[in-house]
Design brief:
By secondary structure, this protein is mainly alpha-helical. It has two domains: about 220 residues, Orthogonal Bundle (Clc chloride channel); about 190 residues, Clc chloride channel. Helix 3 packs antiparallel against helix 5, helix 10 runs parallel beside helix 13 and helix 10 packs antiparallel against helix 14. The radius of gyration is 21 Å and the shape is globular. Keywords: Chloride, Chloride channel, Ion channel, Ion transport, Membrane, Transmembrane, Transmembrane helix, Transport. This is H+/Cl- antiporter ClcA. Pfam families: Voltage_CLC (PF00654).
Length: about 450
């Protein structure tokens, strides 16, 4: 897959040594010329990923509405109105669905993994279609029921699996197969969050491990097509509503100081994910562990309903400064535990929004103390913290900054503080040799 050379031996386009933190470094020279047939496959991948992403979001919202009996409004409002006993019962049911569902899926489909990272970096871009689509559907169902996992894992997996099937049909070589699968994964995420540029950069910086114009064009094409296709069903506005935040000296100094702390938090978060993934159950344990863990999360949701779901509502509340300090402290401690526990139980799901939520909680909490000494717009603290933790956890600073810009669309004035915080977080995480949240989920060789 790497042409017999290690990452340290790869050369970047300028002739220097390109050493990246992802284990998937691919040199542009390794990818043969992109033929007209390949570009047809890129277009097809974008269309299929957009349709799959839209369909999966419909399934997610249907599961949420049925579980908590609501028709409109936010997920958190529905959870709060559902009552304590219903939260516990809903999570217990989600655990049962997860355990039985994945056990049956493995029995039906047989051996074979369904992790995008493993497929790209270890399996030459191969993904089993039935197993992957089944995993994606189960993932969004349990997230809709309240599992503390990200929703992006399902569309990423579906997009990559569909691209892999197209590669089988077209009999692509390994380099083109990996490129097309990565484009499918990025397109799947881009369409459900309405972040075409961020999705393309995630494809390059995280999944392919190199920023190259030659590889950027198919990634951009697939993500833009998928996003446009998903507009037929999904909203076209930003994911988060953020008040207009102007540049201030207070926010700039805060960003410089918070960056290293965000990096340390990201290091701890990645290590928690690694431990959880290493202790995932196998065999019959997969039937029991999700039920036990999800029920425990449901019990925690009795006093803290914000723990349920992927964390989108937590982020929105911090961006609009609607969370008091005691609740921020509790959620900053409990949300990572709920997410890693859910992942460690054997359930499949994403980590993108839970990571943003963790960073936003840190930024909002420290910002509340900071503003007493040097006032600044409250939304800026949460956005800066979210971007810094996301960058260090993904080991993708450029993608993280662009993703935050696209997710909010109102924080252009925060660019300099944002970059200061991201730089500080990246320096700390790299100093401590921290991998990304995606590479720690690779199976041991």
């Amino acid at each position: 897959m790497n042409g017999g050379r290690s990452n340290d031996e790869r050369k970047d386009e300028s002739g220097g040594t390109g050493i990246l933190e992802q284990p998937n470094l691919i040199a542009p020279a390794d990818v043969p010329a992109l033929s007209a047939r390949f570009w047809v496959l890129v277009v097809a991948t974008g269309v299929l990923a957009g349709l799959a992403g839209a369909a999966l979001m419909v399934v997610l919202h249907t599961a949420a509405h049925l579980t908590y009996s609501y028709r409109s409004g936010s997920f958190l409002t529905a959870v709060e109105q559902a009552g304590a006993s219903r939260r516990v019962m809903a999570l217990a049911a989600a655990g049962a669905v997860a355990g039985v569902g994945w056990w049956l899926l493995r029995w039906w489909t047989g051996a074979g993994g369904s992790e995008v990272s493993t497929a790209l970096w270890r399996d030459e871009g191969h993904l089993p279609l039935r197993r992957s689509l089944g995993t994606a559907v189960l993932s969004v169902v349990i997230v809709g029921m309240g599992a503390s996992l990200g929703r992006e894992g399902a569309p990423r997996l579906a997009g990559a699996a569909l691209a892999s099937r197209l590669s089988d049909w077209a009999r692509l070589n390994t380099a083109h197969r990996r490129l097309l699968a990565a484009c499918g994964a990025g397109a799947g995420m881009a369409c459900v969050y309405n972040v075409p540029l961020g999705g393309a950069l995630l494809t390059l910086e995280v999944m392919l491990g190199v920023l190259s114009l030659r590889l950027a064009l198919p990634a951009l094409a697939a993500c833009c097509i998928a996003t446009a296709v998903s507009w037929t069903v999904l909203p076209t506005g930003p994911t988060y509503q953020v008040p207009e935040v102007g540049l201030s000296a207070s926010l700039t100094v805060f960003a410089v100081l918070i960056g290293p702390f965000a990096g340390l938090l990201a290091v701890g978060w990645v290590r928690m994910i690694r431990i959880a993934h290493e202790h995932r159950p196998t065999g019959r344990g997969l039937l029991i562990a999700p039920l036990v863990v999800f029920t425990a999360v449901g019990a925690l949701a009795v006093p803290y309903p914000q723990l349920l779901g992927n964390g989108k509502d937590i982020v929105q509340l911090t961006f609009t400064a609607q969370v008091a300090a005691p609740l921020l402290v509790a959620l900053l401690f409990l949300k990572p535990i709920a997410t890693t526990g859910s992942l460690g139980s054997g359930a499949s799901g994403g980590l993108f929004t839970p990571t943003i939520a963790t960073g936003a909680l840190l930024g909002s909490l420290t910002g509340q103390g900071w503003t007493h000494a040097w006032p600044a717009p409250a939304a800026g603290f949460a956005v800066i913290g979210a971007a810094a933790v996301l960058a260090a956890a993904m080991q993708a600073p450029i993608a993280a900054v662009v993703l935050m810009l696209e997710l909010t669309r109102t924080i252009d004035a925060l660019m300099v503080p944002l970059l200061f915080a991201v730089a500080g977080a990246m320096l700390v995480s790299r100093r401590l040799d921290t991998p990304s949240i995606y590479s720690v989920r690779l199976p041991a060789q």
